[in-house]
Amino acid sequence: MAPRRAVISVTSAHAPLHHGNETGLFISEALHPFNVFKKAGFPVDLVSTTGTYVPDWLSLQPNFLPENDRKQWEDVNGEFRQKLDNMMKPEVVDPSKSNKQYGIFFASAGHAALIDYPHAKGLQNIAIDVWVGGGIVSSV
Predict the structure, then answer these.
(1) Which of 110, 117, 118 has its CA nearest to residue 17?
(2) Cα 134 vs. chain centroid, distance in angstroms?
(3) How far apart are CA 35 and CA 33, in angstroms?
(4) Closest Cα to residue 56, out of 110, 12, 127, 128?
(5) What is the rounded distance in angstroms from the CA atom of residue 106 to the CA atom of residue 30?
(6) How far apart are CA 8 and CA 29, in angstroms?
(7) What is the pLDDT of residues 41-93, one digit of tens each?
(8) Which residue, among 19, 65, 47, 25, has the nearest Cα to 104 in the 3D structure?
């Protein structure tokens, strides 16, 4: 049986998009699964290739980040922001043990994921290990 712990991957990439505004992590695409997994009783970790992220400009607009989501996003002392702002790098996750640590690998997205995910060997290895261990690999 796969462990009851989830890991959400986050893009580290960013680039100008939307009339020169930054693309990066689409906040709700990491926040919503984080909340779903937590509500289901899963401990959740966040990981990105560099341990960093840039929020996608569009994801911070009111049409995409409603009031309740915005409150959680702006709470820098809350669990989501603490994990996001102190994110792990893939090399912190021991590949020989990732299928013993995680039962779910969830790839959050945003436009910037198209930049780094195809070459993110560390994230790919975690996903493979979770899958081989009988876990779930999914994405937005």
Answers:
(1) 110
(2) 20
(3) 5
(4) 110
(5) 9
(6) 10
(7) 999 999 999 999 999 999 999 999 999 999 999 999 999 999 999 999 998 88
(8) 47
With residue 21 as reference, give the H or E element that holds it: strand 21-23
Cα–Cα distance, 40 to 44 (Å, whole number): 11
Residues near 63 by beta carbon (within 8 Å), at least 6 away in sequence: none
Residues 17 and 8: their CA atoms lie apart, in Å, by 24
**Residue with the two structure tokens 């893939």:** 90
Query: How many CB atoms are located within 10 Å of the residue 125 CB?
Result: 15
Phi-psi label, residue 126: left if phi above 0, alpha if psi -120 to 50, beta otherwise: alpha
Strands 136-139 and 15-17: unpaired
Q: Which residue has the tokens 């960093």?
A: 52
With tokens 């990066």, the residue in question is: 24
pTM strictly above 0.85: yes
Amino acid present at 45: D
The DSSP result for 24-40, as a single string, is -B-HHHHHHHHHHHHHT
Closest CA to 96 of 48, 132, 120, 121: 132
